[in-house]
Amino acid sequence: MIRKFFLNVSHKEQKRRFLERLDNPDKNWKFSISDASEREHWDEYMIAYDEMIRYTATPNAPWFVVPADKKWFTRIEVAAAVVDAMQDLDLHHPEVGKEKRKELITARHQLLREKR
Questions:
Q1: Which of 15, 3, 9, 21 is nearest to 68 (CA)?
Q2: Bridge partners of 98?
Q3: Tens place of pLDDT per residue across the chain (116 aa)
Q4: CA end-to-end span of the chain, whole Å?
Q5: What is the CATH topology of the domain spanning 4-113?
Q6: Coil vs helix vs strand at 60
Q7: Distance CA 21, CA 28 (A)
Q8: What is the DSSP string of 26-64?
Q9: How far is CA 8 from CA 1, 5, 53, 67, 89, in A?
Q10: Which of 14, 19, 82, 92 has its CA 20 to 30 A from that of 107?
């Protein structure tokens, strides 16, 4: 099962985060000088992302475009999609047959007979 997530940060929020990375010495490592210059191509990137999502989404590997300006919301949305995908798997514990059940009874008796 494949699920793809595009975390969609707005132009305004990206700018805010970049400025925070520049202003906060603990976050300087997150910033690349190309981050600022690449923003000039925002509209082209949005077109490319839209095409990429449209042309690579399939029923077996869909894209989830998640608003990402608020990290708490993003995390909830991604977690919910993962939970839904797991529930779709309809997983169950394996069934235990008669032979295995006999082995389990034997093991139980063995454990109960132990002195310590």
A1: 9
A2: none
A3: 899 999 999 999 999 999 999 999 999 999 999 999 999 999 999 999 999 999 999 999 999 999 999 999 999 999 999 999 999 998 999 999 999 999 999 999 999 999 88
A4: 46
A5: Rossmann fold (3.40.50)
A6: coil
A7: 5
A8: GGGGG--HHHHHHGGGHHHHHHHHHHHHHHH-BTTB-EE
A9: 22, 9, 12, 5, 27
A10: 92
What number of residues does the chain have? 116
Number of H helices and E strands in the chain, helices first, is: 5, 2
Distance between CA atoms of residues 28 and 30, nearest Å: 5
Distances (CA, A) of 91 to 2, 12, 49, 84, 85: 16, 42, 34, 12, 11
* Residue written as token pair 């009874």: 105
Which residue is it, tokens 């779709």?
Answer: 88
Name the burial class of residue 59, with classes exposed (0-12), middle (13-18) and buried (19+) by CB atoms within 10 angstroms of its CB.
exposed
Q: Which amino acid is at 101?
A: R
Contact 116, 43 (CB under 8 A): no
